[in-house]
Write the structure tokens for this entry.
Amino acid sequence: MKNTRLINGNHIDLGVCYYPEHWDKSLWAEDLDRMLAAGLKTVRIAEFAWSLIEPGEGQYTYEFFDEFLDLALKKGMQVIFCTPTATPPAWLTEKYPEVLNADMEGHLIRHGARRHYNYNSPVYQEFCKKIVEKSAAHYAGHPAVVGWQLDNEFNCENDRFYSESDTIAFRKFLKEKYGALETLNLAWGTVFWNQTYTDWAQIHVPRKTNSGSPNPHMMLDYFRFISDSVCRFARMQADILRKYCKEGDFITTNGMFANIDYQRMGRESLDVLMYDSYPNFSYCPDNYDAGDILKDRRSSRSLAELRAVSPTFGIMEQQSGANGWNTSMDAPTPRPGQITLWTMQSIAHGADYISYFRWRTCTFGTEIYWHGILDYSGRDNRRLREVREIFDKIAKMQELAGSLYRAKVGILRDYDNIWDTQLDKWHRRVDTVSQESLFTALQLAHVPFDYVYLENHDTLESLSQYQVLFYPHASILTPERARLLEQYVAAGGQLVMGCRTGYKDINGKCVMEYLPGVVRELTGTDVPEYSLAAPDEVPIMAEWDDVRFESAAFNELLAPLGEQSQVLATYTSGCYKDAPALICNSFGRGKAYYFGGAFAADAAKVFLEKLGISEPYSDVIRLPQSCELTVREKDNSKYLFVLNYLAQPAEIVLHVPMQDIWTSETLSGPRTLEGYGVGIYKL
Ligand code: GAL
């Protein structure tokens, strides 16, 4: 871990998002004093404040933030400064409309909200280079500044780009990738429906097509192109900042949004990735699902995704008030204890820095209902008191800093397949079910797990720490990735794959091999026939020993290949009734499991139980399903986080003596966690 002034493995810190430009300057000093008194020692500023640095083209002025930074320094407040590129000013977009993004019909997305720009406009890139260079040259040396945030939430609100500049850049991206048009035509299968291109100028970013069905292989490249555009844009800024950053200053951005390869962005441009965590989205009336057992606990899925990029990370915006725009997304105010619960949820997953969104609630604009710690009046309130209490709690848990979340189970992911599901209906159908079920089952069975991103340069080492890996529906599978999976299993790993594996190549074209293609030998499985689950046959059931579970969404007929291949489950209904539904192949020292459906909730649970990975900490702790368990480890100590997401108390049992991190008492036996309560126990 780089030795930065925040997130350096030595301490856990709190901060807050602040908008000096929203308030009368007479409030600044008092605000900073009150933040510091509440334990908030870092502020993030300036991400939407371009006009305060460049109020007119080429006119740079630094007084406003100089004044704020000097005050921050005087008060002892650290500052994360942002590049302001998420909101280009009106003078810029009016004079150079080419910097704007467009919708698919080519209508420009106009000034007036935010993120209205496109990444590929050479004019915009020049303006951004200049404002980043000017800001960095002027502010990076300031002793109050400890780090930089690039832009704000790349791809938030809009993750598709259709401007003229995007089309030009898309052609360049494709030329670099394919070299010759013939190669592109082949990769995209353009002979189908006479889509063949004879000139690069005929290629565009997606446009309106009949029945909304563009060429799928083009779409896969388009998503790759968007990611490439964001990563290049981030890197352009990071390269400039690095020239000016002081020793120990860091570069970050706040995620996580679609069509971005964060692993690449992390490698190229970031010291650490941060996340904006708003667990109460699940309580917006439009999203609310009374039957959803997880609700705000679902944020743990995003936190696990974040950890796949930054094992130790920060939360740039942690919910501290009701969320809501005046036009959408309205949720209730956090109940007493919930700010603490969500803060600890983030820390439980690996956060060493938590910055609340925001200090005061804005009294104007779209976000008047997106509350911060303080309401409009700024009076002391119970949320501020809770934040102060969190600070006191964190003071007692500093030994956890730099500890790492530990998991023996992983879910393999890769961007080719993630992006393929955005267009491909079958792939999306099976993947949505399985990702949801696996996450839920792992949560409810208290199994810490990681998302593990397969990248092209991955080696066995990155996988071998996992006892079990799920790779639910790797439709796109390359020979290189298949070899890596073989190495993992041969070395003793257990790999679980589901239907629709291995039937596409890297361009998303179907292979002509016997399925599951490149993992046929590894899985010891042949798939002679398949069908979408017929609506009049669902739920299609399978049986493993005496346990029945659903084979969801899709239905593959399986046959074992070779002596090492054993049928573990058979279908008990559907058109392949009595045929194998699950095959286990012994391969080297490990086992590969191939299942002919998608993992429904009950199936996911059965797999965890049968593979012996349910409740891995049951010898030391018992807790109800409604509580989440995570484990961070450092220096031979384990820190068990127990998070109760319900308003009602939860009964837990500590089977062995453990130290309560906040009271230092050694505890064992039955305990009651209050509603929204958190326990952190050292083992
Ligand atoms: C985040 C964003 C903030 C603020 C907040 C509430 O997505 O980064 O600027 O808009 O949501 O809407």
